[in-house]
Specification:
CATH class: Alpha Beta
Oligomer: single chain
CATH topology: Rossmann fold
CATH superfamily: Vaccinia Virus protein VP39
Helix content: 25-40%
Largest sheet: 7 strands, mixed
Number of helices: 9
Number of domains: 1
């Protein structure tokens, strides 16, 4: 279950949205558990908010970098673990559950390991994004090295299906958001910064107005029922 996505910190990106939501809902103190920590940049951005941070990552090569960004690092396959550290104020699953054969099993573990009042923060790609829909219109559905059709994705989600899965695992959703199409990663090398910023601002607006169509990733904040 590889999870070594590039950290994205620009307007409308899923990581910037996640950081804002963690700061909004998690409060101060307690433990942050990042499942699928990748490079650890997301947790590092909110580290001062927590008493302790723990990163789980599948890729052994990531461990040296993660040790400087977490208080504890665990190299583990999330498909095989039977329990998680308990009493967590916040648990992050950023770009993770779409890689799992049994994502519901992990969500149940997450639910049991949250402290009272704790929140889980989840992001998944939106298979109903306009770029995928247009591709299907012209008969194109090709796996790629990254993005919504990443060739390591085992599961695909829409707003409706991710809501159903999270609620089915015993959570109540308190907020949903959508990231915008990452034009900076697509055309950033060839486009002036001003044009990129204008494009990102416009896409962020469209995503807020019509999330099911324009959201590139769906971000969910939930608490146990």
């Amino acid at each position: 279950m590889p999870n070594v996505y590039t950290f994205k910190d620009f307007e409308g990106s899923s990581h910037r949205i996640l950081i804002g939501l963690i700061r909004k809902y998690a409060g101060r103190g307690g433990t942050l558990l990042d499942l699928g920590a990748a490079g650890g940049e997301l947790a590092a951005a909110v580290r001062e908010q927590f008493d302790r941070t723990i990163g789980f990552e599948f890729q052994v090569d990531c461990a040296p970098d993660l040790r400087g960004r977490f208080d504890s690092v665990v190299v583990a396959d999330l498909e095989r673990i039977e329990r998680l550290p308990g009493g967590n104020r916040a648990i992050v699953l950023a770009d993770v559950i779409e890689h799992l054969r049994d994502s519901a099993a992990l969500l149940r573990l997450v639910r049991r390991s949250l402290a009272p009042g704790g929140h889980v923060f989840i992001s998944v790609p939106n298979i109903a994004n306009i770029t995928v829909r247009l591709g299907l219109l012209f008969g194109v559905f090709e796996y790629r090295d990254r993005g919504i059709l990443d060739n390591t994705h085992l599961r695909f989600y829409t707003l409706r299906t991710i809501r159903k899965e999270i609620q089915g695992a015993g959570f109540h959703i308190v907020e949903m958001a959508g990231s915008s199409i990452p034009v900076r990663l697509i055309i950033g090398r060839f486009t002036p910064e001003l044009i990129l910023r204008i494009g990102e601002r416009i896409l962020t607006l469209f995503t807020r107005l019509w999330r099911s169509l324009f959201a590139y990733q769906i971000i969910v904040v939930a608490v146990p029922e």
